[in-house]
Amino acid sequence: MTGGYNLHVLENDNKNSIDVGLKYVNNDACYPSLLVVGQIMDALESGKYDPDHTAVIMSQTGGGCRASNYIAFIRRALKKAGYAQIPVISFNVVGLESNPGFKLNPDLAVRIVFGAVIGDIFMKCLYRMRPYEKVPGSADRLHKKWEQIVIRQLQAKHVSWTRFNNLCRQIIRDFDRLPVTDEKKPRVGIVGEILVKFAPAANNHLVDLLEAEGAEAVVPDFVDFFMYSFYNTRFQYEHYGTSKKSMVLMNAGIKAVQLLRKAADDEFEKSVHFTPSAKIEKLAEYASPIVSIGNQTGEGWFLTGEMMELIHSGVENIVCIQPFGCLPNHVVGKGVIKAIRQDYPMANIVAIDYDPGASEVNQLNRIKLMLSTANRNLQEDNKAL
Ligand code: SF4
Fold it and tell me: Which of 33, 58, 302, 369 has a CA between 20 and 30 Å from the CA of residue 321?
């Protein structure tokens, strides 16, 4: 029970959900919408949920992309499967729907934000340390240990900022002390469309694949995507005349998240192995010579900004992943690679498309080709030292 709701985050991001999704969504829609609908329908078909006492909630940014149709896709699938009575709640901050039966109380909001920030800490710590661990399985065990502690704390009757800050610091310190080897491995950034980037089933377990191939995966923070959405209101206010109130509110949101991440960022700064989270203003500064900040559909300028941020932090190998047919991200992802290479000839970027019918062998070959260049560059760097 969280914030008065019995909330279940679906964990079925797997091949079966993709197959179920294909039954309900035509595959000329985006792959992420297909997977989202597939996960929901797979969960309902499992019999675990009473359809008369269940609601579906999904977060939306409300941008100009097909993502804004997800709720309609979900409702259509529910109706088709005979679950028309299940309410679908759009969780958004731009007033897409009113959702009178759902109240985001401050307690629940705080727990969601704490959880998201800690999720990013886990991701950073685990991906940074696991490829070099001295004792096989030790990084995963440490993650599981802290995961249980975090779940307990976030489900406790009261959550406090002080306890949250201490938790962030302790997790980082513990991971920083994990015994690791001094091997040199190519570091490979993963950027792209948000769902394909973070749902392992959607990207055919790309992080595991990179680690198995002897590389370290570097995945920028999940929370930064929301910072991008908040930051966009500046451009919208200045150029499209949208509401000043919303811009001021969203800027306050950026400041609030920066404040929430401060304890973790300070600890990352002090650590041996980690670096603090990127600043959204810096990402916009990096992206703006290449694409306009007005590119706000899909991942927009943020995708370009993340690639530039990775390159500036020394991660020159990048896999840019997007759903097949995702026009906005092809423009700001694949479309900018040539421009980036002109200024950064060492940038080793490969663009990979994902969808239910994409050839895994083809994806693997392209990734291996990128990795062979990455390994060659690493050897040359080592010789130069
Ligand atoms: S960004 Fe791409 S994948 Fe996401 S909704 Fe838009 S077209 Fe679909």
Answer: 58
